Amino acid sequence: MMEEEAVLCFPQLNTSCWKPKRPRSHSVLTYILLSCISLLTVTLNLLVIISISHFKQLHTSTNFLLLSLAVSDLLVGLIMLFEGMVIDGCWYLSDIMCTMYYVLQYIATCSSVGIMVLISVDRYVAICNPLHYSTKVSPRRVKILIPLCWICCMLFVSLQMKENLKQTGQFKSCVGECVIVFNMLEQVADLVLMFILPISVIVVLYVRVFAVALTQARAMRTLIMVASRQHSVGVTAKRGEVKAARTLGVVVAVFLLCVCPLYCVSLAGQDTLFDVSSASFVICLAYFNSCLNPLVYALFYPWFRKSVRLIVTLQILKPGSFESNILK
């Protein structure tokens, strides 16, 4: 019965894993779809990275956070290339590559969550405490916080996967399986530190941000009727902050919609043996968020659309292009 429904990953080995027998067209379609999404994710996030890195006007605290998020999303796009093998049911690479796949996956996820928290803090200070924003959230401080965020994620992932890193492939039951094992303590730590705690902070901060933004919007409508030219500049600046908060709120909302299903599976009380092939949909949904972020920027940020045109037309290769007025 098994020979009719499944095939061996490595027919020459008696210890090979079995994989479900699917129509070849399904497997080809899966690989093509994942490859296209991966290519699109890498390309779009590379455009974000080049834009913010190259143009001097974009060197702001908020944009540095978006740059770090784009690096994380770029990493996800590269990881997605290996997802086809896992979904197909057979891992054809080495055990070390399997472990590295999971390590990079968790680092990318952890860093994305960390940056989302920092983005929420950035918008909270900008809207709720604008007079001290330039000192509390200066580009210099953000440049320190971003590497710290990545270092903390690497340390956390190393502690979480210490048993899996001691001997790669020790938990697999057959040749061709890519699997890792988390004990109960590690699962709880992952759920609390990478989901419940950061998501709670993000939601609380953004509820406060939009409450204050709504109050400011009402005040601005009244103020703009009687404001002098000097005051109007301040009103325009506040409008810009509110618009930025709204745009980044969309980014955070999309992130929550894509990532929450993955952790809901964990909350449902799945077995400690976590095999990606058994939860391919929710993982691919979480991955797809990395492709959506640059599309949100394209919809809401004129500077991103303008910078993409300059990059695609190779205008950035001209001397002094980094000083282009990208915000006009």
UniProtKB/TrEMBL annotation:
Keywords attached to this entry: Cell membrane, G-protein coupled receptor, Membrane, Receptor, Transducer, Transmembrane, Transmembrane helix
Membrane topology: Multi-pass membrane protein
Classification via InterPro entries: GPCR_Rhodpsn, GPCR_Rhodpsn_7TM, TAAR
Annotated GO CC locations: plasma membrane
Compartments where found: Cell membrane
Main localization category: membrane
Transmembrane segments: 28-52, 64-82, 102-121, 142-161, 191-215, 248-268, 280-300
Record's keyword annotation contains Nucleotide-binding: no
G-protein coupled receptors family 1 profile domain: residues covered: 44-297
A Pfam family per the record: 7tm_1
Protein name, per record: Trace amine-associated receptor 13c-like
Gene source species: Betta splendens
Gene transcribed to yield this protein: LOC114847744
